[in-house]
Amino acid sequence: MLAETRRLEIVDTLRSNGAVTVAEVEDRYDVSAMTARRDLDELERRGLVRRTHGGAVLPSTAAHEDSFARRMNVSREEKERLAAAAVSMLSARETVFLDSSTTSYFVARRLIDAGVSATVLTNSLPVMELIFNEGGQDVELIGIGGTLRRLTRSFVGPFAVRTVQGHFADRLFLSVKGLTETGMLTDADPLEAEVKRAMIAQAGESTL
User: Which PROSITE patterns does the protein's record reference (predicted)?
Assistant: First the structure.
């Protein structure tokens, strides 16, 4: 198969699935990892994809993104109701992943107020600060480090993904920006999306 034909098929796959990995390109087209990365790099140069660690997403998944502080005041009452429903699902001493969304912040707030014993794993700096300052003895915190995104006040990147992969949680509570026709979850930033995908893989149950 010609390189150009292969690259066009990769773009078609992205349009259907929302994302593709280097390993998937290798397996599907029987090419080396170097060739797969070169294809994705070339497609990014043309503006057809956006490269991520280990793959690529469509540029459209990197849509406008508001800051954490701004999102805190959007649909606040709805988020508080969702948080109450989420915490009501928990049993004592469960281990929970919380993503970097503001809804997860309200889940942490409700968890503390309800006095539920739990272990929280999160890449959200505001959630870490909240639990550190107000969590008391009931909530154990495992912070997921990495590269700090100041806009979302969250830790992302390969180190964050590896940290998530080193743990398992009973539940995950997360928010996303969108959903593709094939059911793939998308986020405004591909690095955030990678952390969330890792959390989904390591959680016994995920709640969106």
Answer: HTH_DEOR_1, HTH_DEOR_2
